[in-house]
């Protein structure tokens, strides 16, 4: 008698059914992974707030209050500080210095113009500048004025021309008709208020006497600090910092930028005025 052959069970499942089984297995595995990951994330979040959602609300409130305090503080602009505008020719020789008395307690910037030959102790400003540069002018001018000059902006004629071009035409009062022809340049201007381009402004600044230079510096500051320039204030600051020599940093500017915006909006076009000498510095203003 011949032994019976073992008959193998055949799987007649279609290929489509096999793919469906694999897909169900994948979906189950992926869903399990998402659930486990979500559970872990919720646990970590709850632990970060000590399993108390009130801590999250309190933290947000404190953050909002801190931001409000910082915003309020940033608009506080007070006290008195001195800034020097140092003007040179393109060869590096000192022309003149505009000493700015920035008294924010009374919201006023007074400009005292100092010729390069001004004596400070045993030296002139020109000699001091030649020895130590613009930074060397801060201490001697602090000593003779009683103001604290701690910052400067130095501009050559080329740099000044760039700054004026960025700001736009500057209106300067010309005291009398000018018909000048020199070795370096010529200048023809009528008396009265004149809108000076960057080229004319620089020529007039070289030509003018000390009071004329002072009035030109005042006009430059007033042109810079106008309402139309408020929206471009940060751009103007960056341009001036990148196109002049200065010890004013981005950090210095950021501390007062918000308050400066309000100051400009309030005093637009009338922030600076001419002064013949340094105003008396009182103890109240020094605080």
Q: Can you put this structure into words, describing what you see?
A:
The protein is an alpha+beta fold and 287 residues long. It has two domains: 16-74; 80-286, 3-Layer(aba) Sandwich (Aminopeptidase). It has ten helices and twelve strands. The protein has helices at 15-48, 53-74, 125-132, 138-145, 157-167, 198-207, 210-224, 233-243, 250-267, 283-286; strands at 80-88, 94-103, 108-115, 119-120, 123-124, 149-155, 170-174, 178-181, 186-189, 192-196, 245-246, 272-275. Strand 2 (94-103) and strand 3 form a beta hairpin. Helix 5 (157-167) crosses helix 6 and helix 8 packs across helix 9 (250-267).
3D shape: elongated
Spell out the CATH superfamily of the largest domain.
Answer: LCP protein
- Please, how many domains? 2
Low-confidence stretches: 59-75, 282-287
Corresponding CATH architecture of the largest domain: 3-Layer(aba) Sandwich
Distance between the termini: 123 Å
Overall SS class: alpha+beta
Number of helices: 10
> What's the total count of β strands?
12
Outline of the structure:
By secondary structure, the protein is α+β, with helices and mostly antiparallel strands.
Q: Topology of this structure?
A:
Layout: H1 15-48, H2 53-74, E1 80-88, E2 94-103, E3 108-115, E4 119-120, E5 123-124, H3 125-132, H4 138-145, E6 149-155, H5 157-167, E7 170-174, E8 178-181, E9 186-189, E10 192-196, H6 198-207, H7 210-224, H8 233-243, E11 245-246, H9 250-267, E12 272-275, H10 283-286
Parallel strand pairs: 1-6, 3-12
Antiparallel strand pairs: 1-2, 2-3, 4-5, 6-11, 7-10, 8-9
């Amino acid at each position: 008698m011949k032994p019976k052959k073992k008959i193998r069970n055949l799987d007649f499942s279609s290929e489509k059914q096999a793919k469906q089984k694999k897909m169900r297995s994948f979906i189950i595995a992926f869903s399990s992974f998402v659930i486990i990951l979500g559970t872990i994330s919720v646990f970590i979040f709850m632990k970060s707030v000590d399993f108390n959602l009130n801590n999250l609300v309190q933290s947000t409130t404190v953050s909002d209050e801190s931001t409000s305090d910082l915003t309020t503080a940033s608009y506080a602009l007070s006290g008195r500080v001195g800034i020097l505008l140092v003007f040179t020719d393109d060869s590096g020789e000192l022309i003149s210095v505009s000493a700015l008395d920035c008294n924010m307690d009374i919201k006023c910037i007074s400009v005292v113009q100092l010729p390069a030959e001004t004596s400070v102790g045993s030296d002139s400003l020109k000699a001091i500048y030649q020895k130590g540069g613009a930074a060397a002018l801060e201490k001697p001018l602090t000593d003779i004025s009683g103001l604290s000059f701690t910052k400067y902006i130095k501009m050559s004629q080329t740099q000044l021309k760039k700054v004026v071009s960025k700001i736009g035409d500057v209106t300067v009062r010309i005291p009398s008709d000018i018909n000048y022809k020199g070795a370096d340049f010529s200048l023809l201007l009528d008396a009265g208020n004149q809108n000076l381009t960057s080229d004319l402004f620089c020529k007039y600044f070289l030509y003018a006497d000390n009071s004329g230079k002072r009035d030109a510096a005042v006009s430059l500051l007033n042109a810079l600090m106008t309402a139309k320039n408020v929206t471009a204030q940060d751009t103007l600051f960056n341009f001036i910092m990148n196109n002049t020599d200065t010890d004013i940093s981005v950090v210095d500017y950021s501390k007062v930028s918000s308050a400066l915006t309000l100051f400009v909006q309030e005093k637009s076009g009338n922030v600076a005025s001419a002064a013949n000498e340094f105003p008396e510095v009182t103890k109240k203003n020094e605080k």
